[in-house]
Write a structure and sequence with these properties.
By secondary structure, the protein is α+β, with helices and mostly antiparallel strands. The chain has four helices and three strands, in the order ααβββαα. The N and C termini lie far apart (about 35 Å).
Length: about 80
């Protein structure tokens, strides 16, 4: 069984891969917030006060969820929030 930190790191890696697979620069829009266990992506990149799409991840999700599916769902919900 993975530790909490290992699961979080794996999820962040999978989200980065998901953004990259869709031609997005994850470094420009994705910002994981480990302290608050939150995945965040900028809805308005390049602005001084960006708007964010964010999803909180519970400790239980990190231990029991399919992390690849969680990353895919986050990206899909982000695209929907963008209206695409």
């Amino acid at each position: 069984m993975s530790t909490h930190a290992e699961s979080w790191d794996r999820l962040v890696t999978l989200v980065v891969e998901e953004f990259s697979a869709h031609g997005q620069d994850p470094g420009a829009v994705f910002e994981p917030d480990h302290q608050h266990q939150r995945l965040r992506a900028r809805l308005t990149p390049g602005t001084k006060s960006p708007e964010w799409f964010a999803v909180d991840v519970t400790a239980q999700q990190l231990q029991t969820a399919d992390l690849k599916r969680t990353a895919q769902d986050f990206y899909a919900a982000y695209r929907k929030a963008l209206g695409k």
